[in-house]
Known about the structure:
The protein is mainly α. The protein is 76% helix and 0% strand.
Amino acid sequence: MNAFVAILLGGIGTYLMRASFLAFIGEGRIPQSFERSLRYVGPAVFAAITLPRVLGSPGLSALTIRPTAEMFAILVAGVVAYKTRHVPATLALGMVALWLLRWMA
Length: 105
């Protein structure tokens, strides 16, 4: 029963957050400061999803992290992103690097 209540409360909270955004903004324009901050949501979510997978479990310290294929693929993707500023190229070359590194291992 506790899991059901937690899921229900999470759903209600999510709905209220989205509904409040629409209620307060309505037909108007999003404030410029808020619109600027929304640019960072995508990269923040991507980092939150990928970093635990790349670095391992949260209990690991920096001394116990071993280099993996994912880490090197992230480096390749980071260099491509820095040089080209092209998201599809970054994703494609990062995935190719990951596949090649896993195949070689």
